[in-house]
Doubled CXXCH domain-containing protein (Rhizorhabdus histidinilytica), 607 residues
Amino acid sequence: MSFIVRTVARTADGRDIVRPKSFDKAELSIGRSPSSDIHLPDLAVALNHAVIRTAAGGAVEIVATAGMPFLVDGKSTEHERFSASPGANIRIGSHSLSVEPGEGDEKGAVVITVERVGAISNASEEKEEARVFSLASVLPSRRIMAWAGVLLVLAIFLAWPLVSIHTQPTDNSRKVAFHADELWTSGKLSQVHRSLENNCQACHVKAGESVRDTACVACHTKVHDHADKAKLLEAKGSPGIVDGTKQFVGGIFGIQPGRCVECHTEHQGQTAMPVTDERFCTNCHEDMSKRIDTALKDAADFGEHHPQFEPTIRFAGPNGVPSFRRVSLDANPKEDNGLKFPHDLHLSTTNGVAQMAKTLGKAEGYGAPLDCANCHTRDATGSSFVAVKMEPACGACHSLAFDQVGGTIRTLRHGDPAQVVADIRAFYRAGAPRNPALQGMDRRRPGDFASAAQRASFAQTSAMHIGNADQAIRAVFSKGGACFDCHTVRATGNPTTPFAVTPVALSRRYMMKGWFDHAAHDTESCASCHAVKGSKLASDVNLPKLAKCQECHGGQDAHKEVPSACAMCHDYHRNDFAPLMVRDNRARGKAVEHIREKALKQAGTGI
């Protein structure tokens, strides 16, 4: 048997409003609790006052659950059973519950009509129930309290900080204590600005005025901005209605777009300043060529939308003056560095070079076929490499020794053609009592000048080809000579210095608009990125192309690849230092220590 509860309410003009609700269950709860099936909002009613349920034979049973009686047909009781037909009248507090059988469509159900028939206990109106436990009668009115709260907030959080600002000294002599203007602070300063915690006026120069760029550049004097503000605004394009409105309102208060604080937000906590989000860059660079006239290529996500790398390449210019320009790696550019050096020959594992490296042995730092580390050495930062020098990197095989006086080996002066010519002329002017080793392409270790086989070879060379100083000089600077096969040699027409060597100019940094950190790639081999094993010319630009980098690196939100935002390789403020994202002092310190330990071990000193 189910129940239908009809709750009757009366309007101000006396009309009845009946709200029926059906319950398809055999028992209903009655009480003041909002969760009760029959809710009676009256303090005279317990939270869970009683239950009413159907019984056998078409009877209805009501039972008190809180130990409080109720009236059934005028009789006080805590438990009563009666027939659903004709029903009964139940009185609980100020409410009447009329129980009767359903008719028509409601036949078979028990209909309970709930109606308030008396005043609610302790109150004459329903709305006064909330005031029974209220302090409204002893407090000021809500209007008075609201105005008092507004004035209190203005006094504490506006007037007091303003007074504190105007009464504090403008220099850094403010006492370390609580000051009312700290109520406006949204958080602690970042780590780089912690020293300014007690010197608000360093940035907030004027009270009530936002931070100006002049306050920033007062300390950051060597910042090279990305571009002028007018060009930045043009590159960003139309700001739209929302941003345009913000710019207009900001202009009224002297706040112009492109300020330092738009990117370098402060009071975000005692942490390092966050790395610039990739979207900050792509807002301009994604389709910039459509908005302004620029030679820059559009760029967005590194993994999906980034132009090919364009390193700065050295080219031969008129009158020997070199020129530099950026060239895409897709064009496979050749650089003019003045050097003849075949990487493939020196990195072979089977040819004569490899065999000589094995012959030299571990005592000389070799003992195996050559690899990149035999010539290229990391710099102190670990991010790049020092310039290759002939003596330590090449001299083990390419000796410049030409004479021996007692136990001293005389060598030609590398890098100074005029001195080489002078030394040879001086050698012959002295009578040349010894056989000189000037046919310099015989590969030998420095100090092994006087072996018997070499003496015989040099004597034959001297007798057949080098009869005087001019012939010896010509032999050194010609094909097969000590200088020719590695350097670009040209005749000068000057009898005093008949030959000149093109100076070697090796680029230490190709990506002038970006940054690459070798220290972060220690787990990779050089050949995994640089295709040097197939390079036959020193003019080859053996830099990895974009596709090679994309094998490991994706965009900022990449999942499979290494997430690589713009700030990993580029810095907004252009300078010669690494971008903020890779400028980690602790990591850099570890890299430097690693390089130092490695160098000491190679030198045989240990740690």
User: Anything to note?
Assistant: Residues 439-465, 585-592, 602-607 have pLDDT under 50 and may be disordered. Residues 157-274 form one domain. Residues 69 and 77 are 5 Å apart (CA to CA).
